[in-house]
Amino acid sequence: MPLAVLPALVGDIEEAFNVHFDAFRDEPIMRFLYPGGVDREAHRKGTATWWNHDRTGHHFKCVDTDTGRIVGLASWDVFWKPGDGFERPAGIPWLEGEDKARCEAVLAPIWDLRVRFFGKRRHVYLASVAVDPQHQRRGIGSLLVKSGVDMAEQLQVPVYTEASESGFGLYERMGFERVTHARLIHRAEVTGDPADVEVPLVVRMPSAAKGMSFKEWEEKGFPENYQGLSDCHIALFNYFPITSWAAGFHRSTQLWIQHHHDHYPSRPRGLSPFFYASMDLIPMFKHDRPRLVCLGIAYVHALAGGKNALEIGD
């Protein structure tokens, strides 16, 4: 029975969410999201309205091509435009009173970690993946997760989600790493469960990261190009002493200085043009700490070299 992953359309909502709710029937989160049970008609209408105007959501169904039945559903948030990332929700609009407060207390640490890890950074987030309980062990989950991984690879951005202990192996096989420097724990005093429950957090870095872990990327200040430097600067850093590398970085700013000579002839030559060029570069690098540090190193190197070292063609 061949399987196919296709975009889920508004007309698929009822059948696709039959699968979703069957798959999540026994999950603890359901009693917080829908403490009085699910009003399926209201859910269908609300989901249709949301899908029609949502700019970042992408939904994929897995279809058994022999029967035409939907046997799986994955929902993704794809933040590919700079500055168009995750915003912490104001709350849960369909709940009231104690139910609302309890649900939001459960979801708050999930939201907080998403803001901490990604916020406005470009990334792909797996909101949910569901497989029809009658069609387990057919590779449906892997196919659905791959749909988002492929999108992330095209965009060269990370994929992030909250997994489960039972599902962690699937993510590990698909190149995800477990986040170990931060933890998502649902506290017993909030959930009412007998004990605290830890939820595995997983990230898949894109191939452009060249083996860099998520923790390393975070420690570098989340540079957009993952290395924090251009390939040219990385090569200089790897093969030359730091002063020579700073000189190389300084050389790369010479075109900026020439630009200022050409467009601002009234500005003095020498150190001042380098200063003006540096001021132009700083806003570009303000979210890229390694490169900003390198700009400072190059600037100090220029100061040490004196005025003549700053002239074009030196």
TrEMBL record:
Coiled coil, from the record: none
SUPFAM superfamilies for this protein: Acyl-CoA N-acyltransferases (Nat)
Classification via Pfam families: Acetyltransf_1
Molecular function via GO: acyltransferase activity, transferring groups other than amino-acyl groups
Domain N-acetyltransferase: 3-206
Residue stretches spanning the membrane: none
Name assigned to this protein: N-acetyltransferase domain-containing protein
